[in-house]
Amino acid sequence: MNRRIKQRIFFTLFRILGALILGILLWILGFIIYHGAGVISWEFLTAAPEEGMSAGGIFPAIVGTLCLVVGSMAFATPFGIMSAIYMNEYAGNGWIVKFIRVMTNNLSGIPSIVFGLFGMSLFVNTLHFGDSIIAGSLTLGLLILPLIIRTTEEALKAIPDSYRTGSYALGASKLQTIRRVVLPMAFPNIITGLILSIGRVSGETAPILFTVAAYFLPKLPSGIFDQVMALPYHLYVIATSGTDVEASRPIAYGTALVLIAIVLIMNLLATALRRYFGGKVKTN
Q1: pTM for the structure as a whole
Q2: Which residue from 195, 182, 164 is spatially nearest to 84, judged by alpha carbons?
Q3: Least confident interval from 67-71, 75-79, 177-181, 215-219
Q4: Where does the chain show beta strands of DSSP type E?
Q5: Which residues, in sequence order, are CB contacts of 99 under 8 Å at separation 6+?
Q6: CA 45 to CA 69: how far, in whole Å?
Q7: 37-283: CATH number
Q8: How far apart, in whole angstroms, are the C-alpha atoms of residue 152 and residue 101?
Q9: pLDDT tens per residue, range 201-229
Q10: Domain segments of the chain: what residues?
Q11: What are the C-alpha distances in Å from 64 to residues 89, 269, 270, 282?
């Protein structure tokens, strides 16, 4: 068997696998849309839940999910980016960096429920934040921190050293080089890690179960120390523990569809931002 035949066989196999994955994705989306589209209405999106969540809308859960996404990203993004800058631009290849990378990889493999237990122990009980938005956001921020660090570090490594050398030759300091040369060029790829982080935060249930999520709270939060409802936990409860599971099942599919739509909208916005900054880097 010559090389060209092998290449065709493997390319055909890859196309089949790609089509299979795409088909599974479309089947899942079609299943959720088919069962949940009939529930979606303006009242469903803007009203509070009623009758033990078997009626009404999911507006408090939408607001709670957005609060947790914004809070966790506000905490994890600066810490993750600064950690990656330190490891790639300042620390070199010593044992400290190797140790940090090993620990980061270990953290990324820890189940999310362990983060939830840690967040409950530290933020809820020890720091006395209680079940609150800040406790849930910090827990989710720790969950996605390894992902942001690794993706940012890879984005920084992709920048050729010749750009750094040229900046130094023009008299720029290391900080100026990082701020004006390296980060702008790496920013489009950094956003990729942020997109993945948003998607993971939006769908996590275990960490918020221990730190912030409320079973039934038909009102909006007034501060960062309030409990909130969240779409993933709301979906879990009405699908398994509602007063009438069969009657509330359409609401569960509608909630799942809204959650997917929110994640899709956030990803599209982040992708547009990535293309915008990528275009600016190319033109400059």
Answers
A1: 0.85
A2: 182
A3: 215-219
A4: 49-50, 55-56
A5: none
A6: 18
A7: 1.10.3720.10
A8: 13
A9: 888 888 888 898 887 777 888 888 988 88
A10: 37-283
A11: 37, 20, 20, 38
